[in-house]
Design brief:
- The complex is a heterodimer of chains A (120) and B (114).
- Chain A has 2 helices and 4 strands.
- A 3-stranded antiparallel β-sheet of chain A has the order 1-4-3, covered by helices on one side.
- By secondary structure, chain B is α+β, with helices and mostly antiparallel strands.
- Chain B has one domain: 2-Layer Sandwich (Ribosomal protein S3 C-terminal domain), CATH 3.30.1140.40.
- Chain B is built from 2 helices and 4 strands, in the order H-H-E-E-E-E.
- In chain B, a hairpin with a 3-residue loop joins strand 3 and strand 4.
- In chain B, helix 1 runs antiparallel to helix 2.
- Chain B is globular, with a radius of gyration of 16 Å.
- The chains are: A alpha+beta (120), B alpha+beta (114).
- Chains A and B meet through helix 2, strand 1, strand 2 and strand 4 of A and helix 2, strand 1, strand 2 and strand 4 of B.
C-alpha cells in the first residue's frame, strides 16, 4: 500500500469507516449467497473463502481509502451445539472500527466480521 | 518513496504469536469441559490475555484478536479470512486447539503502524 504525502492523522468525517454501511454490504452478500443453502463439508471451505474475498472487494469499493481491511468469515453446521465468538482489538478507537453480521438458516450459521484500521 | 533500511522491523512473526496464543488458551481453558454459562467468561479472558501478552512485546502494531469456542457435537466449522493490507509488514496467525469437549479457534491479525 503506497503512502501518499498528505500527513492526515485522522480521516475526515465522510471518509471514516462507517459500521452501518459495511454491515449493509455484508448483509447483502451473505443473504444472496447463503439463502437456502445446505451445509456441505466439500463445498464450505471454498464457499467461505469466496465469501471473504467478495465481501472484502465490496467494502473496498465502498470507498474507504487509507483503511486496511480484515474480513473474517466463520461458517458452521447447525447441530444444536453452543458456540461463542468474541474479539478484542488494540487500535486507535478514534479512527478504527468494525462491523459484524450473523446469518442463520436451518442447516448452517455464518458469522462475518470486518475490521478496518486506518493507515496514517 | 525512499526505502529506509530498517534493522529491527521485519514482518509479523507468526510463530512467536502462535506460541503466545497457545499458552494463553491452555491457561484459561486447559482442563475444563464445555460449559454454556462459563463460555462468555472464557472467550473474554482468552482474548484479553492474548492481547496483553502481544502488547508486552512492544512492537509497533495494532492487533485484532478473535476467539471462537464451540462445543463438540460432531458439527463442522470453517473459518476464512481475506485481508487488504501491506503483506510486507502485516500478518496473521490462527491457532486451532481442542480438548475432549470443545474446540477453540483463535485468530490474531497484526496491522503495522508506519
Amino acid at each position: 500500500m503506497e503512502g501518499s504525502d498528505t500527513y492526515l492523522i485522522r480521516p475526515n468525517h465522510q471518509y471514516k469507516f462507517k459500521p452501518a454501511i459495511v454491515k449493509e454490504c455484508i448483509r447483502e452478500i451473505v443473504r444472496e449467497r447463503l439463502s437456502g443453502m445446505l451445509y456441505d463439508p466439500e463445498e464450505v471451505p471454498e464457499l467461505s473463502r469466496s465469501l471473504a474475498d467478495g465481501i472484502k472487494d465490496k467494502v473496498k469499493n465502498a470507498g474507504f481509502d487509507r483503511y486496511k481491511l480484515v474480513v473474517q468469515v466463520v461458517i458452521g453446521e447447525q447441530r444444536g451445539q453452543g458456540i461463542k465468538m468474541s474479539s478484542r482489538c488494540l487500535w486507535d478507537a478514534d479512527t478504527d472500527n468494525y462491523a459484524e453480521d450473523v446469518f442463520m438458516n436451518d442447516s448452517l450459521f455464518c458469522v462475518v466480521a470486518v475490521f478496518g484500521s486506518y493507515y496514517y | 518513496m525512499e526505502e529506509y533500511p530498517n534493522g529491527n522491523e521485519g514482518s509479523f512473526n507468526s510463530e512467536e504469536a502462535d506460541g503466545v496464543v497457545k499458552e494463553c488458551i491452555e491457561a484459561v481453558v486447559g482442563g475444563d469441559d464445555y460449559s454454556a454459562n462459563q463460555v462468555n467468561k472464557w472467550t473474554a479472558s482468552i482474548v484479553e490475555r492474548c492481547l496483553t501478552q502481544l502488547v508486552k512485546q512492544g512492537k509497533p502494531y495494532k492487533y485484532i484478536v478473535t476467539c471462537a469456542v464451540m462445543q463438540k457435537t460432531g458439527a463442522g466449522l470453517h473459518t476464512a479470512n481475506s485481508c487488504y493490507w501491506d503483506t510486507a509488514v502485516d500478518g496473521s496467525c490462527t491457532v486451532r486447539w481442542e480438548n475432549r469437549t470443545m474446540y477453540c479457534v483463535v485468530s490474531v491479525f497484526a496491522v503495522a503502524i508506519p
